[in-house]
Design brief:
Length: 99
């Protein structure tokens, strides 16, 4: 069980509190000889269950009798800075047409 990280394209914190339960692979992947696609005989490889919180995921795993491990996410640290800090590192470049 783990809480997935937000996509790099996301900057907000909405909908990042869900937890995911995935099963460990039971069979190795293989290359399908005709088309060259990756295949597997393991049906659990495709199962991915989402839960609103960690407690719900743990209760489900225990109720089903699954052995599980919980991977706690690292918390995101926000650095407080002012709007002016966005422009401090830039070198002064005169704009075209100004002398």
């Amino acid at each position: 069980m783990y809480r997935p990280a937000a996509s790099p394209m996301q900057s907000g914190r909405a909908n990042t509190r869900r937890w995911v339960l995935e099963f460990e692979p039971q069979a190795p992947l293989f290359i399908e000889p005709l088309m060259g696609w990756t295949g597997s005989t393991d049906p659990w490889r495709q199962v991915r269950l989402s839960f609103p919180d960690k407690e719900s995921a743990v209760r489900f795993a225990e109720r089903q009798g699954y052995a599980y491990t919980v991977s706690e996410p690292g918390e995101r640290r926000m650095q407080a800075k002012s709007y002016a800090d966005n422009f401090r590192a830039r070198a002064h470049r005169p704009t075209a047409g100004h002398r």
